[in-house]
Amino acid sequence: MADTARRPDHRYGNRPTMKDVAARAGVGLKTVSRVVNGEPGVTPDTVRRVQEAIEALGFRRNDSARVLRKGRTASVGLVLEDLADPFYGPLSRAVEEVARAHGALLINGSSAEDPEREQELALALCARRVDGLIVIPAGDDHRYLEPEIRAGVATVFVDRPAGRIEADTVLSDSFGGARTGVAHLVAHGHRRIGFIGDRPRIHTAVERLRGYRAAMAEAGLPVDEAWVSLGSTEPARVRQAVAAMLSGPEPVTALFAGNNRVTVTVVRELAPRTRPVALVGFDDIELADLLGITVIAQDAAALGRTAAQRLFRRLDGLHDAPERVELATTLVPRGSGELPPA
Amino acid sequence: MADTARRPDHRYGNRPTMKDVAARAGVGLKTVSRVVNGEPGVTPDTVRRVQEAIEALGFRRNDSARVLRKGRTASVGLVLEDLADPFYGPLSRAVEEVARAHGALLINGSSAEDPEREQELALALCARRVDGLIVIPAGDDHRYLEPEIRAGVATVFVDRPAGRIEADTVLSDSFGGARTGVAHLVAHGHRRIGFIGDRPRIHTAVERLRGYRAAMAEAGLPVDEAWVSLGSTEPARVRQAVAAMLSGPEPVTALFAGNNRVTVTVVRELAPRTRPVALVGFDDIELADLLGITVIAQDAAALGRTAAQRLFRRLDGLHDAPERVELATTLVPRGSGELPPA
DNA sequence: GTGAAAGCGCTAACAA
DNA sequence: TTGTTAGCGCTTTCAC
Which domains does chain A have, with CATH numbers? Predict the structure, then answer.
């Protein structure tokens, strides 16, 4: 009986609203709002009555409505490449922790390294009116974000720089890391060193290759272009590159792997071979210590944390020029990078 | 001049609204709405005018308002333990893919294995009016979700069952997997087998221990309680457990590790030892193939995908009784589990 | 200490 | 084909 009197238009599966709570408690709507938000100026007795009504009805404030009115969503968006990649898990988690400390929720999205999907995702997050956006770029043109940034969406780029716009950016020192890693191989006597990296569209791939070339040049070593391979990190592609570099009359004696996925495949590929090949990989990998893999480690969590902190400082009203932070990498020698040339 | 005439109360950093677009294009508000949503019944010429205004103003629809009106947020929440754990990355990613296929965004939150934080997060997501919720429980009492579920929030539990409420659940066969793994060790001649698992509050830990006991019992082997250790997955705690089981006059000759983190620590702990100890771990690990670690593999992505599919079927109106799905695990022999007793 | 009214930006229902 | 009105559930403002 009573039920038939309900608003037929009620959304959210017939959830009670503040109005319902107010009616039940016999108070005004605003009083319920005050109680729900812990605002002062309500008699303890009234508070109790309202709370009882809330309990009885199973009321929970609709934050969508609140957001609409207040203009801030207390949420930030994170567009990354692939949450399943062990590099991005810790990064995302670090962002989440900072967001949590600021009372904000995190909306994640994976671009799958597709620029269109990155844009689609980022704009969808903007339509949700996230307060801020952290982007690990897949594309190299971010002018599509200009209106959003102008409209007040704080935006920070991580791991790779923004394309064609000025924005806060937090990077690892890819160039320096790769240079250090390759110099390490050179120091152990290698002269023919191969570089297997990610697609040339990706900034870090290019920077790391630049680091490789710098180290080789500084050692006075020539680079045979057959020693350089950029492309997809698909195992098949990487395997082929390894095979090519290790065949012929003058095979490389050492390899530099441009990121974690490349390293994994290279390690698998080298394992069954008899002739030892030295290896340094960019990015640390779980259990790399047990496998004795020498790496250039970057701190994914620090990247995420730094970016998120910057974001929230912007949201707190910071207004200076966009900043570019570069985090140092660490050479972790574990054996594979210290092998002498075969 | 013109600026001073602006509404002083404008939120979202002075973003244009449909009203602004309508004014600029010289059309009605609803016409803008039609164009933005691609609804039919608008003259191509009008569409063009509206689109020009949208472009010029940098308008983007405010989905918060849309959500408030439509009652569906096109977003789902995922409460998991720790996004930085390599087990949850793929799971989360799989959920995201299904959500994306249904046009929904994913809001992630990590409970850090803290029941209170799980509840806080889940309820915050409900306040955002996510359409559905996927929970990897940290706690064992989910009655706090009852009002939400009754109010229409589709809810699916993954990896561990819900506590004290009926709900859709997607699990891996922890009991069967552990039993298979331990039986495998028995088949290779072991009689004294240790079990090192997660905290006893965690369902999977208990189930896997149960599998261990079942396999031992089925083989007619006694279980010395000194061979069983449940607790935190902190490396220190695990190391201590390993040390204890491998010392004394009758040390275990094989170990069963209750999850990925335990396995990693056990492997590190066993590596420097001379006496070989057989090992089977629950959960697969990257590079475990190269280290020759025998594991009981569960498919994290399949868990996430299955749960998300169930969730969206609920959102599409499915109304049958809560279902419990148990996904099979796979024994992957790689050497460590096939070692004979020392 | 409390409540009524207005309005956040959008969509549904209806009118023109 | 297009526009007007009402209202989603909340917070803000201001009056009582």
Answer: 18-61 (1.10.260.40), 73-172+300-327 (3.40.50.2300), 174-299 (3.40.50.2300)
Distance from residue B63 (CA) to nucleotide C14 (C1'), in Å? 24
In this complex, do A64 and B64 lie within 8 Å of one another by their Cβ atoms? yes
Cβ–Cβ of A286/B291 closer than 8 Å? Answer: no
CA B91 to CA B76: how far, in whole Å? 14
Classified as helix, coil or strand, A165 is coil
Alpha-helical runs (H) found in chain B: 18-25, 29-36, 44-57, 63-70, 88-101, 115-127, 146-150, 174-187, 203-218, 235-246, 260-270, 288-291, 300-315
- Residue-wise burial string across A81-119, b where 16 or more C-beta atoms lie within 10 A, e elsewhere: bbbbbbbbbbbbbbbbbbbbebebbbbbbbbebebebbb
**A14-23: long-range pairs with CB below 8 Å, 24+:** A14/B151, A14/B152, A15/A59, A15/A60, A15/A62, A15/B151, A15/B152, A16/A57, A16/A58, A16/A59, A17/A59, A17/A62, A18/A59, A18/A61, A20/A57, A20/A59, A21/A50, A21/A53, A21/A54, A21/A57, A21/A59, A22/A53
pLDDT digits (tens, 9 = 90+) for B290-327: 999 999 999 999 999 999 999 999 998 898 999 999 99
Tell me the per-residue pLDDT of B85-131, one tens digit each, with 9 for 90 and over.
Answer: 999 999 999 999 999 999 999 999 999 999 999 999 999 999 999 99
pTM over 0.90: yes
Min Cα separation B331/chain A (Å): 21
The SS3 assignment for B293 reads coil
Cβ-based contacts of A92 with chain B (< 8 Å): 83-84, 108
Starting at the earlier edge strand, list the strands of the sheet with B154-158: A324-327, A168-172, A154-158, A132-135, A75-80, A105-110, B105-110, B75-80, B132-135, B154-158, B168-172, B324-327
The whole-angstrom distance between residue A170's C-alpha and the CA centroid of its chain comes to: 11
A197-245 confidence digits (pLDDT tens): 999 999 999 999 999 999 999 999 999 999 999 999 999 999 999 999 9
Strands A193-197 and A330-332: unpaired
Task: Dump the DSSP string for B30-98.
Answer: HHHHHHHTT-S---HHHHHHHHHHHHHHT----HHHHHHHHS--SEEEEEES-TTSTTHHHHHHHHHHH
Contacts of B200 (CB under 8 A, 6+ apart): B206, B230, B231
Q: Is the C-beta atom of B17 closer than 7 angstroms to strand C?
A: yes
Gap between the Cα atoms of A121 and B259, Å rounded: 34
B44: the nucleotide nearest its CA (via C1') is: D1
- Start-to-end CA distance of chain B, whole Å, equals 88
Centre a 10 Å sphere on the Cβ of residue B181 and count the other Cβ atoms it contains: 28
- Most distant CA pair in chain A: distance in Å? 91
> What residue is closest to C9 (Cα–C1')?
B65
Distance measured from the CA of protein residue B35 to the C1' of nucleotide C13, in angstroms: 18
CA dist B46 and B15 (Å) reads: 23
**B124 contacts on A by Cβ (under 8 Å):** 105
Closest protein residue to C11 (Cα–C1'): B69
Q: Which residue in A341, A324, A334, A308 sits closest to A130, CA to CA?
A: A308
Round to a whole number and report the distance in Å from the CA of A74 to the C1' of D3. Answer: 35
